[in-house]
Amino acid sequence: QPKRKAAFGSVGRRIPYRILHVINQDGESLGNMHRSEALRLMDERGLKLVLLRENVEPPVYRLMTGQQIHEEQLKLAEKKKASPKPGVVQKELSFSSAIAKNDLDTKIKQIAQWIEKKHHVKVTIRQAK
């Protein structure tokens, strides 16, 4: 069973870095500190250390409550849902100008479903002979 990537980086006690930049739960910077000092602070306040930015020197961690972590995960999930999917899907439909009414109604329903799913729809009508 593959591990799912968490919405945040590491949460808790396993911190691979020696020096961290720590932010408290109110968003105020506590400055750079050693890993052991950050863990001590985490234990004293009953909070969790959450990795925010890993690609900076030193990596940025934030002290958060379980409730704050949960709220951030919900926000990220909403953003992910709302973001457009990579590569726009284009649906194409073509039919003759002599199409029967029932067939036309069916195709209109299909087009409406595609539009609800935010697909781009291209309709081509061929002239009947």
UniProtKB/TrEMBL annotation:
One cellular-component annotation, GO: mitochondrion
Domain Translation initiation factor 3 N-terminal: 11-78
UniProt cross-references to Pfam families, sorted A to Z: IF3_N
Taxonomy of the source species: Eukaryota, Metazoa, Chordata, Craniata, Vertebrata
GO molecular function, one term: ribosome binding
NCBIfam families recorded: infC (TIGR00168)
Species, as recorded: Aegithalos caudatus
GO BP: any one term: mitochondrial translational initiation
Family note: Belongs to the IF-3 family.
Domain of life: Eukaryota
Entry-linked InterPro entries: T_IF-3_C_sf, T_IF-3_N_sf, Translation_initiation_fac_3, Translation_initiation_fac_3_N
The protein, known as: IF3M factor
SUPFAM superfamilies: Translation initiation factor IF3, C-terminal domain (SSF55200), Translation initiation factor IF3, N-terminal domain (SSF54364)
Swiss-Prot/TrEMBL keywords: Initiation factor, Protein biosynthesis
